[in-house]
Design brief:
The chain has one domain: Rossmann fold (3-Layer(aba) Sandwich). The chain is built from nine helices and seven strands; from the N terminus they run H-E-H-E-H-E-H-E-H-E-H-E-H-H-H-E. The radius of gyration is 18 Å and the shape is globular. It has 256 residues and is α/β, with parallel strands linked by helices. Helix 3 links the parallel strand 2 and strand 3.
Amino acid sequence: MNELIGQAFCLRGKVALITGGGSGLGFAIAQTLQGAGATVILVGHSNEENLKKACAQLEGSHYYLFDITRLDEVGGFVKQVQKAHGPIDILVNNAGVHCKKNVEDLDPEDFRRVFDVHYLASISLVQAVLPEMRARKSGKIIFLSSMSAFVGLTKVVAYTAAKGAITASVRALAAEVSPDNIQVNAIAPGFIDTPMFRLATDNDPERKKKILGHTPMGRFGEPLDVGFGALYLASHASDFVTGTCLMIDGGFSIGF
């Protein structure tokens, strides 16, 4: 049984492409997948220093500077990665941008910017990796959703719309590619203790109090909480799981 469990979570020989993998949740996901044996490919837009530091901590990993919103270049980029490292077995669409504004202050450009990164770029990457996955009858695709897709959060209408589109598309994608043994799932992190989270809450004790008041476990999550959830969805342990969204939120989504 121990051997069977070990095999279920083993990713040796697998190639994982993770967008936004240089820091925060993306790096935590990279840590767990690399720890299980995967060759990890990190993709970032501009902060090369973060990517270098991340790769220095992840033996055998690689990074690429690429703007995933250059949609007409995504296919060529994926072919470049596959030529260098082999077919992509696991795609983690983690990269994102935030947009915190009152609804009356949003303009079309805000929506375009958020949707380009969160939705259109993610779908373009899926389109690019699917031919190889279909040919091999195997693949894992993971999206990062958000609590905003499930509960009403203020001042994030554009972000919520993009995450809602992702969450709905996961079900449609899963139904379409399941005959080729490809699983498509999402993770909806709760409030996780990352540098970005601290930046948003360190000077707002009332916001922190409100979040914890709706979190039955009474604490914020750690990045590796999300990383281990991604490991499950990337591994053979989840081969019969598709079209779902895994809540990693300490109960926030069901809290009162």
